[in-house]
Design goal:
By secondary structure, the chain is of the alpha/beta class. The protein is 39% helix and 18% strand. The protein has a five-stranded parallel beta sheet, sandwiched between helices.
Length: 170
Amino acid sequence: MVRRNLFEYLVADLNTRSFIIITGARQVGKTTLLKQFLNDLQEQKHSVYYVNLEDPDFLDSLNEHPKNIFSLFTIDKKQKNIFLIDEIQYLNNPTNFLKYLYDEYADFVKLYVTGSSAFYLDAKFKDSLAGRKKIYILNTLSLDEFLLFIRRKESGEISKIHSLRSFISG
């Protein structure tokens, strides 16, 4: 399976306290990236839960109160529980949701959330959440990723590109 470059950063952030926000334009692969990460975490036997806020049942419950996430899943407070939340911009108050879960449950909850690039600038996002978050922007495929996706890595094209970049930046 071909993975986006950002995937390795998500893995590296597993042991950090910050929650992770993945933002980007529509259709760049945020949901696909999150589902690949979900599969990887499940294979490694992590306690991981996926929530798609396009599902009205999830959305209604979490709009009612952030702690309702714990009524949707059986979690173990003795270990880190990883929540992958897709389309967080659909919440009425995404800032409050993230801030509340971080402030009250960061010892056993790790959050990875996706949202469109506009949601972070949206009026619904009222707080900077300084010190609590790390933001990644998922762009369209880089040239390296594109070559991986078309299976050209074996042909040495990527190493040629890196050499050319080094030469140009001198």
